[in-house]
């Protein structure tokens, strides 16, 4: 049960009314917002205290929105401010912003005062804060004559600065004549009032240029005091002394500071030696996160002061002669701050609603209500309105009673002013969810079908499936307040068409969406544990199934990271192969099967071991440990001993001890601890309320052994939880809720029966008391009715039947974001070229974001082309820009087109309203290539070409550029001729061309921006007019192909003959010498001998000392040994003779040969 303070009947009524009106909100749909009337809302205004630079024009901001667009008026010092009477005062068009032009020498003091802006339309009046305009001032230092200061060594000294009072106050610093800062230390330092304090002076302090400077930040001017001269006398020993405070002078002082401001306290002491200063807070600690010690510990600064910082602070000054302390009593007051600022209210006629205005402060703020800028007691009476202190209650509201209400919360230290309108609307239902959306979900997963509606009164929503015959109801469905339909466990039978129907007393609207339930992705054959020897290959298989309509992707990871970039890793559709495995490949490999809706994964371990040194050594997993025994039982501990099994040629590296919890998870074994392989005993630390059984596994380089037999059961007693849930977070899913989530404790962490969670929360710096609720068997809790996007402190504590867990620590979370309430303004488009534009906008105000601004979206689409024949609309495109951007580029636009554009801001909840749509035109660009280009007619001295206009004209075609030139047999290009043709021409005939000549043609279209890409074509004028018809490509005729093949074969044969003759013989010089000598051993070649060369060998025997030719034989005539008997005869590597026949060079032999000397020459001779 929630721990809440008891509220009275009024609070109960307000809570009830809050629930009644919570569903009626105006969705941030731009089209809808354009149609609905809306009272004015202030969107931007100048700060309450506005100090202006006297050298610049005064600009007082006041921006507002509403429908109709509001008009603006101003008051000054409580009286109507007629801007028409002062020609120097202008109001910006469409805005309430005032500009006072003082460039002509007017004094800005004349415009000082208290200003307030009002924005009016027919539905009400919104007012701004009271804006106090003051001119910044930087007065001159008063003239004074400063006498030199003479001090004895060791004395204390104060150099007074006393700067002139400026607006805002100046920043003080001390420098010398060379504009160098004077060194400061624990002994010499500057106080908060700007004076320079010496705890004790030393001779080195003597100088004549102690100068105090005052910098006035608003005007950036610096003024200086007259230099101060200090002379330190060192004519007698300095007497040491105990510390005495110079600042503050009394023993006790007090200080008041406002909540949220900066608290600064200082203590400066004299003494010799120089005292050390320290600080404490009585009965409490100084806040470490917000406190800092400055000026050598003499100043204590606390940022963002809260009520907890009130109390007594003490500063201590100490040296070896004694110590002294000073007490500062700090009180913290507070200007008003919001607990719950009033929010806009939209009601239908006859409905009820409330506006609350809750503020805190010290002293407590008083609440004053206004309506349309007038005190509510002076406004026309409205019987439907009642004021209850900080709450306005509306009942039975009537059409026409829309108004803007102001809440003013004030006390001695300031005020808050907030506008909230009441808008009375009567609107029939509208379904804002896009029609025919297809939702896809995995079987057994929840499905959420949206039905966002608007209407006034709030429409009721009903859902139907497939037909309107029966309304959906029952426990299988959850109907959310925002109209969404949730199905907890989606099944194939839930697939189909769903219709949501919205009704109120003004009408009915409906929308259709579709649900498709898909089969889950599952890994059927996961990868298995592998042990592989180094330099071997390994294969992991991973087979999965998925819904056939979804596209799967398989991903492999190693140790939860991407696979190494190594070609040894090969990924196929259902397997991973690693070749030539190394030690670095060992690890955990995971296959992940992904679809667009879900995924499944499985992992396996790869262990790499050394290859066995000899085949006789066999490495195996260790033997099973045995003889488990439990000794030395304690409340949360026990001693376990065992006997290890056989190592199997691989030393045991470690033992893994696992446990089974028979009370909570019987049959499931968990890892408990590991011990080195040299130990056989372990002292086990246990958790309460567990029925333990233990087993042991041994590990060597090959892998784990089989588990041992379980030990006897050991039971621990229950106890309170030792820990609290982790991962505690607070976030919002709706604009008015806070979802608190945590990671629940495991049964092992529960420590006992009856586990529950105490969930606690309170608004940060707003609420002192914690609100709490106890829940069980869940890991989240939703807090409803929260303000939008405010910080909360959140805690979750575990407790069971034996008591609570430790005190939890608080975490900070934020309630839900709401859609941004304002659109970016001042949208401007700058067209840079025919395909690129730049868009600029003004950022939305921080207040209108209502969350964390994530950026801006620019939605743009092509509405039409500027061509009459082409009005094709383009798809909407979106560019996203970071939140600090106020401009961006729109690339890849189509030339000569009309685009529309709108800009939105978005946060974590979604997009805000769109800016007013802007249209812009893209200029002409260069056209695309002509659609076709061909030769349509060929003659002896003329060619006719045809072409088509480009598909992408990108502007108005101004004509075509036609070029041509000749191409000779060496592909050299001739003189380029160019013609300009009109845009309506699609063919052209060239006359007086050379016959039987190849021409190359070019054509490109052009617009006013230039010529587009060029198309080319080639053609040959004919040799004879008879060849014109029919036009046949000779290269495709059968007789031509056969003729060319025969010629190629003949050339190949001749080349081979020439090559063989050159390498093997023929009538080369050796043969001529043999003929000349008339060797009787050599017989002439027979005419009918068809062998190439002079010799044949019927037995196919190679010559002595020769290499076998490439044909494998050397042929000769009837003599078997005409050359063999010649002892001095040798052969070259190509078979030619050397020795007595080596007198002629190869060059001579080449000249005497009657055959062509090379295949190239042979080819030339044939040609």
UniProtKB/TrEMBL annotation:
Lineage, top ranks: Eukaryota, Metazoa, Chordata, Craniata, Vertebrata
Quaternary assembly: Interacts with SHTN1; the interaction occurs in axonal growth cones. Interacts with isoform 2 of BSG.
Family: Belongs to the immunoglobulin superfamily. L1/neurofascin/NgCAM family.
Record-annotated membrane-spanning stretches: 1039-1060
Major subcellular location class: membrane
Protein name as it appears in the record: Neural cell adhesion molecule L1
Topological category with respect to the lipid bilayer: Single-pass type I membrane protein
GO cellular component, one term: cell surface
Gene from which the chain derives: LOC113042979
Function: Neural cell adhesion molecule involved in the dynamics of cell adhesion and in the generation of transmembrane signals at tyrosine kinase receptors. During brain development, critical in multiple processes, including neuronal migration, axonal growth and fasciculation, and synaptogenesis. In the mature brain, plays a role in the dynamics of neuronal structure and function, including synaptic plasticity.
Keyword tags: Cell adhesion, Cell membrane, Cell projection, Disulfide bond, Glycoprotein, Immunoglobulin domain, Membrane, Repeat, Signal, Transmembrane, Transmembrane helix
Disordered as annotated region, ranges: 709-732, 864-884, 1069-1167
Example GO molecular function: cell-cell adhesion mediator activity
Bias type Basic and acidic residues, positions: 1069-1089, 1144-1154
Ig-like domain boundaries: 40-128, 139-229, 243-331, 336-423, 429-516, 520-607
Secretion signal span: 1-23
Bias kind Basic residues: ranges: 865-875
One GO biological process term: dendrite self-avoidance
Annotated InterPro entries: FN3_dom (IPR003961), FN3_sf (IPR036116), Ig-like_dom (IPR007110), Ig-like_dom_sf (IPR036179), Ig-like_fold (IPR013783), Ig_I-set (IPR013098), Ig_sub (IPR003599), Ig_sub2 (IPR003598)
Subcellular location as annotated: Cell membrane; Cell projection, Growth cone
Fibronectin type-III domain span: 624-719, 721-818, 823-925, 929-1025
């Amino acid at each position: 049960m929630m721990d809440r303070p008891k509220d009275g009947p009024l609070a109960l009524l307000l809570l009830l009314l809050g629930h009644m009106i919570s569903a009626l909100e105006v969705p941030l749909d731009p089209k809808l917002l354009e149609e609905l009337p809306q009272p004015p809302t202030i969107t931007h205004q100048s700060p309450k205290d506005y100090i202006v630079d006297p050298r610049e024009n005064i600009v007082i901001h006041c921006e507002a929105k509403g429908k109709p667009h509001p008009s603006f008026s101003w008051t000054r010092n409580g009286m109507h401010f007629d801007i028409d009477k002062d020609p120097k005062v202008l109001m910006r068009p469409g805005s309430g912003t005032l500009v006072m032009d003082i460039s002509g020498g007017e004094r800005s003091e004349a415009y000082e005062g208290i200003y307030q802006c009002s924005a009016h339309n027919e539905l009400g009046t919104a007012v701004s804060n009271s804006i106090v305009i003051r001119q910044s001032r930087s007065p001159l230092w008063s003239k004074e004559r400063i006498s030199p200061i003479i001090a004895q060594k060791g004395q204390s000294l104060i150099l007074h600065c006393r700067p002139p009072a400026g607006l805002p106050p100046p920043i003080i610093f001390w420098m010398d004549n060379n504009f160098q800062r004077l060194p400061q230390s624990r002994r010499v330092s500057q106080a908060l009032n700007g004076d320079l304090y010496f705890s004790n002076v030393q001779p080195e302090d003597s100088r004549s240029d102690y100068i105090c400077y005052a910098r006035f930040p608003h005007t950036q001017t610096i003024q200086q005091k007259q230099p101060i001269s200090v002379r330190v006398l060192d004519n007698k020993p300095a007497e040491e002394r105990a510390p005495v405070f110079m600042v503050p002078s009394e023993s006790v002082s007090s200080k008041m500071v406002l909540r949220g401001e900066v608290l600064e306290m200082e203590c400066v002491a004299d003494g010799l030696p120089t005292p050390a200063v320290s600080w404490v807070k009585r009965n409490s600690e100084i806040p470490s996160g917000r406190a800092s010690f400055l000026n050598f510990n003499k100043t204590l600064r606390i940022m963002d002061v809260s009520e907890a910082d009130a109390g007594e602070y003490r500063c201590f000054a100490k040296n070896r002669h004694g110590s002294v302390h000073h007490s500062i009593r700090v009180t913290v007051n507070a200007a008003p701050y919001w607990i719950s600022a009033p929010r806009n209210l939209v009601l239908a006629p006859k409905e009820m609603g409330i506006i609350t205005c809750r503020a805190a402060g010290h002293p407590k703020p008083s609440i004053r209500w206004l309506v349309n800028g007038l005190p509510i007691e002076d406004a026309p009476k409205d019987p439907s309105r009642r004021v209850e202190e900080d709450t306005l209650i509306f009942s039975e509201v009537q059409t026409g009673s829309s108004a803007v209400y102001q809440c003013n919360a004030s006390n001695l230290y300031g005020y808050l002013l907030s506008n909230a309108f009441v808008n009375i609307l009567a609107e029939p239902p509208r379904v804002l969810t896009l029609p025919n959306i297809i939702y896809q979900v995995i079987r057994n997963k929840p499905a959420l079908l949206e039905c966002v509606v608007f209407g006034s009164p709030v429409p009721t929503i009903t859902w139907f499936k497939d037909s309107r015959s029966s309304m959906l109801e029952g426990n299988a469905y959850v109907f959310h307040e925002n109209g969404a339909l949730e199905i907890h466990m989606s099944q194939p039978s839930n697939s189909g068409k769903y219709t949501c129907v919205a009704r109120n007393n003004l009408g009915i609207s409906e929308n259709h969406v579709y649900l498709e339930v898909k089969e889950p992705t599952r890994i059927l054959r996961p990868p298995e544990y592998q042990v592989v020897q180094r330099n071997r290959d390994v294969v992991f298989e991973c087979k999965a199934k998925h819904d056939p309509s979804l596209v799967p992707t398989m991903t492999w990871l190693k140790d939860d990271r991407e696979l190494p970039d190594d070609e040894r890793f090969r990924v196929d559709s259902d397997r991973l192969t690693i070749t030539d495995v190394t030690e670095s490949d060992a690890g955990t490999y995971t296959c992940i099967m992904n679809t667009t809706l879900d995924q499944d994964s499985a992992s396996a371990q790869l262990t790499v071991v050394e290859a066995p040194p000899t085949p006789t050594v066999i490495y195996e997993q260790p033997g099973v440990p045995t003889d488990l025994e439990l000794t030395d039982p304690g409340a949360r501990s026990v001693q376990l001993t065992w006997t290890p099994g056989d190592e199997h040629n691989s030393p045991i590296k470690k033992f893994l001890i696992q446990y089974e919890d028979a009370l909570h998870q019987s049959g499931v074994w968990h890892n408990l601890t590991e011990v080195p392989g040299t130990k056989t005993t372990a002292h086990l630390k246990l958790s309460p309320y567990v029925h333990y059984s233990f087993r042991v596994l041994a590990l060597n380089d090959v892998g784990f052994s089989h588990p041992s037999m379980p030990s006897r059961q050991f039971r621990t007693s229950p106890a309170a939880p030792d820990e609290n849930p982790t991962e505690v977070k607070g976030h919002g899913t709706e604009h008015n809720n806070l979802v608190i989530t945590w990671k629940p404790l495991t049964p092992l962490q529960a420590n006992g029966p009856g586990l529950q969670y105490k969930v606690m929360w309170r608004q940060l710096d707003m609420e002192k008391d914690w609100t709490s609720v106890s829940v069980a068997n869940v890991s989240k809790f939703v807090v409803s009715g929260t303000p939008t996007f405010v910080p909360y402190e959140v805690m979750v504590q575990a407790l069971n039947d034996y008591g609570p867990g430790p005190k939890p620590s608080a975490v900070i979370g934020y309630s839900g974001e709401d859609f941004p309430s304002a659109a970016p303004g001042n949208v401007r488009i700058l067209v840079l070229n025919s395909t690129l534009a730049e868009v600029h906008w003004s950022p939305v105000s921080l207040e209108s974001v209502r969350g964390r601004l994530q950026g801006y979206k620019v939605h743009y689409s092509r509405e039409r082309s500027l061509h009459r024949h082409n009005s094709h609309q383009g798809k909407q495109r979106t560019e996203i820009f970071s939140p600090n951007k106020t401009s961006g580029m729109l690339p890849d636009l189509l030339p000569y087109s009309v685009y529309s554009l709108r800009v939105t801001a978005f946060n974590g909840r979604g997009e805000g309203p769109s800016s007013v749509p802007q249209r812009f035109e893209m200029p002409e660009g260069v056209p695309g290539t002509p659609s076709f280009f061909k030769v349509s007619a060929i003659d002896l001295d003329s060619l006719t070409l045809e072409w088509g206009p480009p598909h992408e004209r990108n502007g108005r075609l101004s004509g075509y550029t036609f070029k041509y030139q000749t191409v000779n047999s060496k592909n050299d290009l001739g003189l380029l001729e160019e013609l300009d043709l009109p845009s309506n021409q699609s063919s052209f005939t060239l006359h007086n061309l050379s016959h039987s000549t190849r021409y190359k043609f070019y054509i490109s279209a052009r617009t006013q921006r230039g010529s587009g890409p060029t198309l080319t074509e080639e053609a040959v004028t004919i040799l004879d007019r008879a060849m014109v018809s029919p036009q046949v490509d000779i290269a495709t005729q059968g007789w031509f192909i056969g003729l060319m093949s025969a010629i190629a074969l003949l050339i190949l044969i001749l080349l081979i003959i020439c090559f063989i003759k050159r390498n093997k013989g023929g009538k080369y010089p050796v043969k001529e010498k043999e003929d000349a000598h008339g060797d009787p051993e050599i017989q002439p070649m027979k005419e009918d001998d068809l062998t190439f060369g002079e010799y044949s060998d019927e037995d196919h025997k190679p010559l002595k000392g020769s290499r076998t030719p490439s044909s494998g034989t050397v042929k000769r005539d009837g003599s078997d040994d005409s050359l063999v008997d010649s002892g001095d005869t040798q052969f070259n590597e190509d078979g030619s003779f050397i020795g007595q026949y080596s007198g002629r060079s190869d060059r001579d032999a080449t000249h005497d040969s009657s055959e062509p000397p090379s295949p190239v020459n042979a080819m030339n001779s044939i040609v």
